[in-house]
Design goal:
This protein is α+β, with helices and mostly antiparallel strands and 308 residues long. Helix 5 runs antiparallel to helix 6 and helix 5 runs parallel beside helix 9. It is globular and about 60 Å long.
Length: 308
């Protein structure tokens, strides 16, 4: 664990070096995987050098991504603290704030406008031809927990069933997962660059205009639906609006879009719940959250309850 005071001091020093001047006041921003500091002109992400390497992935991709898609990378590297090294990346601060998971407080018209712009930006990413180094990074094996194939999803559900000895997951939920898996495509496509974590906490918007897509740590080769899923699933009360935007913009039938999103949610939830049951003492809240989401998926028919 990095000492917060040391990390804050390091972020200021990193920002000052990148800007060539005092960065001004820097505030701490909540993050589940990094320590993030934001100033008037700059954002600095810090993580222990020995922790996961996903920031390396983002750093490798950032200089090559389509112009205007994300915040420009100013500097990256290693920085030594008293207690050890940290890896950092610093970016130009883009205007706007994140709509947030579930788009709280966003009205329907604004949600549609933001979704239309987000789909356009993601389409730019999907059409991008990455140069050699970026292509290699996107091709690297990444255990993303999402949908890979019907066989892999069936195997994940079987692993979950084996861990479900105490009946934590109700039998009708397990049956529902199995039914989704049986109708899943044989394989997921891995043909285009995808962000693969494009929920509304990773977008910035200002005055109803999208300004940036952030956090490319999970980017890989995949299927465009891998991005459409996150955009719709985490739009809260605007799920149907965002699905409609995606269907119209991509000429995808609403039924196909719903089915593909359902498969991806089943894969993520089965993977997360299996991991939580493997270490129950440390994952009580994660288990509860996954069970709630599974109930919404299976019993609540999340992706189909408003279908015509």
């Amino acid at each position: 664990m990095i000492d917060p005071r040391q990390a804050h001091d390091a972020a200021r020093a990193i920002a000052a070096a990148a800007l060539g001047r005092d960065p001004g006041p820097m505030a701490t921003i909540a993050s589940s995987s990094h320590q993030v500091y934001i100033g008037p002109e700059i954002v600095v992400k810090i993580i222990g050098a020995a922790r996961h390497s996903r920031l390396n992935r983002e750093i490798a991709l950032a200089p090559h991504l389509p112009t205007g898609l994300t915040a420009p990378l100013l500097d990256s590297g290693l920085y030594r603290l008293e207690t050890g090294e940290v890896r950092y990346a610093c970016y130009t601060r883009m205007p706007g704030t994140a709509p947030g998971m579930g788009m709280p407080g966003v009205d329907r018209l604004t949600a549609r406008l933001l979704a239309e712009q987000a789909v356009q930006r993601l389409d730019t990413l999907h059409r991008w031809t990455p140069p050699g180094h970026a292509e290699q990074t996107l091709s690297e094996t990444l255990d993303h927990g999402g949908f890979v194939s019907r066989a892999a999803l069936v195997a994940e559900i079987e692993n979950l069933a084996a861990l479900n000895r105490n009946g934590v997951v109700p039998s009708h939920v397990m049956d529902g997962l199995t039914a989704i898996a049986e109708c899943a495509p044989l394989h997921a496509r891995t043909t285009v660059p995808v962000h693969a974590d494009g929920h509304w906490g990773n977008w910035l918007a200002h005055d109803r205009s999208v300004t940036a897509l952030l956090d490319f740590e999970w980017a890989r080769f995949g299927d465009p639906i891998d991005d459409w899923f996150f955009l719709a699933r985490f739009s809260g009360p605007h799920l149907e609006t965002v699905l409609d935007v995606i269907a119209r913009a991509t000429a995808t039938s609403p039924e196909t879009l719903r089915a593909e999103c359902e498969v991806r949610e089943a894969a993520y939830l089965a993977s997360d719940l299996r991991a939580a049951l493997e270490r129950p003492a440390a994952s009580t809240q994660m288990t509860a959250d996954n069970l709630r989401d599974l109930d919404e998926l299976i019993v609540g028919r999340l992706w189909w309850r408003h279908a015509p």
